[in-house]
Queue: 3 jobs
Job 1
Amino acid sequence: MKTPYGHNVYAMAAEYPSASALYEAAKRVRDAGFKRWDVFSPFPIHGMDDAMGLGKSWLSAVVLAGGISGLLTAMILEWGPSWILYPVIVHGKPFTWEVVPAFFPIMFELTILFSAFAAFFANLIMNGLPRWNHPMFNWNRFSRVTNDGFFLAIEARDPRFSEEETQHLFEETGGQHITIIHEE
């Protein structure tokens, strides 16, 4: 879909007068069957995740996998040389299960390190970053989102998106300053 000036359409967006109006509009958009849409507000709105129909994030599973891989890496790096490659008794210290407590600090540190890296990079990937300019910033009114603006945008790549139906939905839910957001 293109604008009259030849730009690709990113979304149709509307501004709402309050957080409660945005919350109710989000429930209506969810019930209308839209899948690719988002809300923007200057502060978190309690219950908005449920109103949008969002489920649990996959970030915790990625962090768990990172932690497990860090723990296994530490075990391989410590027990491999100590028990398999070079099983040498130094100063009367055996290379059996009795020395495992000496390995705990390294195992703990690598578990935390790998979990942190997994969380950082998964967060970047899941949020589509780095993205130098979001198309919503092409709308002049959107600069109010950090102060007192409440916005809802339905992306044009949503299978249910049509300009007339989306505009009608925004009007029904009390949206103001309804506009088409272009990509560039």
Job 2
Amino acid sequence: MQVSAGKIVVLGTGGTIAGKASVAGDNIGYVAGQVDVQELLEAVPGLVQAAQGPLQVEQVAQIDSKDMEFSVWADLAIRCRRYLADETVRAIVITHGTDTLEETAWFLHSVLDAAKPVVLTCAMRPATAMAPDGPQNLLDAMAVATAPGACGVLAVCAGVVHGARQVRKVHPYRVDAFGSDETGPLGWIEEGHVRWAQNRPVALMGWAQSALEKIANGAPWPRVEIVMNYAGARGATVDALVSDGVQGLVVAATGNGSLHYNLQAALEHAQAAGVAVRVTTRCTEGQVLPRAGASLPLGHGLSPVKARVSLMLELLGGGVPV
């Protein structure tokens, strides 16, 4: 249910947006996750007006997102589920680091029934930068959270709205570090107003809500690892992972799912031993097209990191990604 009024819940998880450097203007040598999310919000002029209502602020975690843990994902998802069911909540905004934002976005998309907007935002420069990008991204996130038609799990950065399935970090340093796949972004924020693209967001019930129930009840997360195909690839890593008890493997293949014959053989042996295997591509655009007679299943058109999230949820009984 989309509500036209109500409070916005802001959940902080740390990241560069909450980072500090010892020297103003140092955009690389900073420590992420240092500034409390309440302090971040208070430093942004006009944020309360942009929210168009009351804010409820909670610090879920205070980490560099490269160190994201399953426990944080579980806490975040359980809180989001509770607030989405609350009729007094209009939307949720999550401050997040950039490194694993795309994985968190896809995880939340998969496990939540998000008829209201769940907006992840971030920054590429720390809060102590001479020209930090976090404040504008927060304002833009509020604009999206209150925009007519907003729904589902979205990511907002550098004035662009991305969908959870499409969003990907495409640059290690520049402020506009995120892109969408060939379908393009869902919209843009221009002077506090959202202009939706033709492929505007559509509310979808998360395909893996049953997996979240198991996570909430303490079920262990399945172990799924990623391997890559490259010149001279061998199967020793796969064999070692199987011996170590891995439950799933995602392979970032070359081209249209092509694999070195040694790696392919090891993956087929792993599958025969009961390990779930999914094939994706190293290519940053497009997806692997099915080939007749292929022995290994594909990763539902997802990037390797998102296919890993999906396979974990599948192994928890969550179903098949949509």
Job 3
Amino acid sequence: MPETLLSALFRIVVLLSLATSAISAQTTPSSSPLRVGIAGLVHGHVGGFLQQNQHRADIQIVGVAEADPKLASFYESKFSLPHTIFFASVDEMIEKTKPQAVLAYTNTFDHRSVVEACARHGVPVMMEKPLAVSLEDALAMQAAAQRGKIQVLVNYETTWYRSNRAAYDLVHENAIGDIRKVVVHDGHSGPKEINVEPWFLNWLTDPKLNGAGALFDFGCYGADLMTWLTDNRRPDTVTAVTQQIKPDIYSRVDDEATIVLTYPKAQAILQASWNWPFDRKDMEVYGQTGYAITVKRDSVRVRLPKQDEKLIDAKPLDPQESDSMNYLRAVVLDGVQPRGLSSLETNIIVTEILDAARQSAVTGKTIRLADKQ
């Protein structure tokens, strides 16, 4: 073979190798630890986060913002956190510690102020569900995110359920036909009954700080799942009924709620409760030709045309979508674009549904979202 041809082939191989390396560098997840700050400690889920993630090699907690010194001291002592990482405000925490992302564990009402603070500093934020106590706040957060060019994510436990992803895939593969009815159950026996921390209970039972009671606390799960299943289609109508079955415990908020959503050819029933004997988070999806019923985190009962019902194990999730921190890392460090259950776009619609449900429960009327555009 002539040497000039050999040289040309060698150059081509080298160029292909460099191109492959460049592509690999763009798609390989980052191995660097994500520097995170925590905004607020009044949300009880912060304890679970610290217990599960404090010593993860890919997560580094660099700052905590909490205005209540007693609460800050409690968590500092319980988890042996350095005193030097605690600050009184989100702004000060961000300025001093330079986190790459902020995790919000405030009450729901304060989500807006956390997002606005993060937007001022250009820092992405992930909060515990739901996004906001009102559509007004949700839209203000969206505007702040756009100004600050930051990502805003919402963490739901059910986002990381393999069973929900399996149901979604069956719908989008048209395995069970077009959706006709979805029933979502989310709840437990009540926050006081399950012994949440007193600072958590205080705001969960405050209609200003939580938006409502079970209606917002658990109704958000079904609203999120249904919006995801319908590819972010807003429902035509929202109707809700709430009750205070235990007014001696929950005197200012509902403890029982049912939300009915209608679409042109489908209906969703979202059941949210602080009165069930056991905790549950599951979903029934009925299509024209089959159904999928989720069973806890990892299984789904499926019936297809001309087949008996089968209980199947759902396939594992993509590692980048297997838990909230992996997903946050993927968005912040690897440039993954948020979509679906955690995305701001989806959760604007979720908040609109919850806002309309609260209005419906108060007025006893069905709310048409088309009239609110």
